[in-house]
Amino acid sequence: MIFVYQPFFIGLKFDKFVLMKNVVLVLFLGMFCNNVLAQRDDVRLGLCDDLPLQFYQQDYRSIVIENGMGYCRSPEKILDQRITAFKNLESLTFLHSPLSAEYQDYTLPEEISELHNLSTLNTNIPNNAVFGLSSLTNLTLNIHGETTMELLDEEGFYELHQLEFLKLQLYNGLANNYSIKGISGLKKLKEVRLYNPSQQLIDEVLANPYIETLNINSTIDVTFDFSKMLSLKELLLNGNGLDNIPPSIIELPLIEKLEITNNDLTTIPSNIGEMKKLQVLVLGRNKLSSIPSEITQCTSCEVALLLRLLLEVKILNMIKLLTIRLL
């Protein structure tokens, strides 16, 4: 909003009273504009940004802060106990890559537990208070170190009853020696994304019967039992080195989308035609040598294959039966 002020004294004879009135009005408008600017709903601070002046005096709904080395270097932006001032904060992203030893072990302040309106959190430096935030509906954790894994092992997800979306991205096989509990009992959890998870973490997630969308990527030598996932509608298993489609997938009653790309599949089970709800089947970048004719029993299914696969398998007679969507 732009305010255009035309002084009242233009064209009039000079009058001290009129001049004073206009000065007061100008001061009032200046204070009003400053107050409007102070009520911004969100702030986004990248690698090159500093914390703005009067940062903790703002009424933010969304805060995004990223620390680290980019094409420039700025002082590290650190949240402290004054975070309690953000009573209306709904979304917080804080990604920390320390540039100095002083902040090597920095984590979010414990006072984050007082942000009762916080519903979305994305961070790589959680503390124990994060796992008591019962208001969270969306949680993304990027896990780099053993300390964070020990924290997850100790705290678990038991208190996050409102959680609907969970993304866990682990690095360098950190989860192999730890168990992460509490996910299987989250009744409102609808979507989970796992990157480089351990067998223990996979088993915990697959025990949740309420999840509708599941994405598991970059696993090594793990097994999958989907028999308890009776609400599952979308399943993505890309880049997991699978040489067969886990049998328990065929039994999923509500599955509508199945995507298993960048694996080592050589065959498709003949009973895949029993998946009556299946609408989208994506099998690109595998080692398939044949496709069972029973797949045509998926009357509403769109089979997505790479052109390279069609040429290698030479299934020209299947073209009349299948709808081919090129990736």
Short description:
This protein is of the alpha/beta class. It contains 5 helices and 12 strands.
Describe the structure.
This protein is α/β, with parallel strands linked by helices and 327 residues long. Among the domains are: 1-38; 233-327, Ribonuclease Inhibitor (Leucine-rich repeat, LRR (right-handed beta-alpha superhelix)), CATH 3.80.10. It contains five helices and twelve strands. It is elongated, with a radius of gyration of 28 Å. The model is unreliable at 1-14, 34-38 and 305-317 (pLDDT under 50).
Key structural traits:
327 residues; alpha/beta; Leucine-rich repeat, LRR (right-handed beta-alpha superhelix); twelve-stranded parallel β-sheet; 5 helices; 12 strands; disordered N terminus
List the helices and strands and how they pair.
Blueprint: H1 16-38, E1 42-45, E2 62-67, E3 91-96, E4 120-123, E5 138-143, H2 146-155, E6 165-170, E7 191-195, H3 199-206, E8 213-217, E9 234-236, H4 247-250, E10 257-259, E11 280-282, E12 302-304, H5 307-313
Parallel strand pairs: 1-2, 2-3, 3-4, 4-5, 5-6, 6-7, 7-8, 8-9, 9-10, 10-11, 11-12
